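Q: How would the structure tokens look for this protein?
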Amino acid sequence: MNIYILISVSVLVASFIGGLTNHLAIKMLFHPRVAWSLFGKRIPFTPGLIPKRREEIAGSLGRVVSEYLVTSDGISELLRKSEFRESVRKKLSLGLHSLAKREESIEALFMHIWSEERWVAMKPALIKFLNEMSVRGIDWLWVDKGWAKIQVGTLLPDWTEERREVLASRGVQYLIEAIRLELSTANGDRMIRSMTKQMIDQTGGFLGALAVMFIDEDKITIKVHQALVEALDSQAIRASLGDFIIGQLRRVEDMSLEGITNILLESEVQSWAAGKLEWEAWTERLLSVRVDELLNQHMVWIESQLSKVVQAGMNILEANVERIFRAIQLEQLVEDQVRQFPIERLEQIILSVSGREFRAITWLGALLGGMIGLFQALLLRWMV
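A: Here is the predicted structure in token form.
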């Protein structure tokens, strides 16, 4: 056989086999999708590598993503970046300005977000939820956090004996001025006359009759008024009132919030607060407000507070990022998504990204096969 024909055929055959082998190897990453059987025996290399190892790939991807790619430390670092926080602030600001252009009520806005039928069904549930959460919140603070047992004295800032005496002195002065002012009014005059008449009537007998005949009611009223005013200015009265107020203050200081509220409200604070909650009326009032009027009226203030809100939100997220990661179970989430992802779609994605490289591998196989064919032909010719 002509040496050139031998070399050409050998190179072409070897190149074809090398290219075909690499092409089949790439295809066998994804094909066949299921195992093939012949005479009840599974044909080797079926199903393809990725379909066969789908569970292991899902588990490995889950671990890689959760341990190396998307980690709590990485998210925390992102949340701390000022550039990220500024980006969030700008997006919130743009969203608020976009909402501020909507000439519709808050309820109409919700109906755009959800359907009208769904919102009508959600609204009673929302009101019920707000009521329940308010009651639970009050009960949590009052019972679980121990607010009911807190002594009033511990809530007073910088409370000392000196401040107690100052407050008592002011209370005495206020009471005396209030009584003096009341005595100078027509109502005070009527009260003194009533007291004087009652005292005379209680005298009874002959002395009582003489008192009625000879005592001038106007004069005795004036005398009693003067006596009361003079008594109010006496140090003894002031001291007695001061001691009384100090005693009452000490009593209140030692009382718990539960004791105070029971006296003032004449019921448990939870029941009283639940009766004051009017979430249905409050919700209707809020939902009727127009979005543009509400936002434009307070936009300057909202903009001034937006940075603080973003900072606070990012700090809260950063402090709870570990808990959030545990709650969402990222590794399990990635595994489930990989298991559910269609193999056909995965093949399209990989080929769209690495198709050029796969074709290069195929041609490399053909090149290597051709080189091997050339070497074999030359070796065969040399041996012959």
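The chain has a mean pLDDT of 81.

The longest strand covers residues 37-38.

Upvote if useful.
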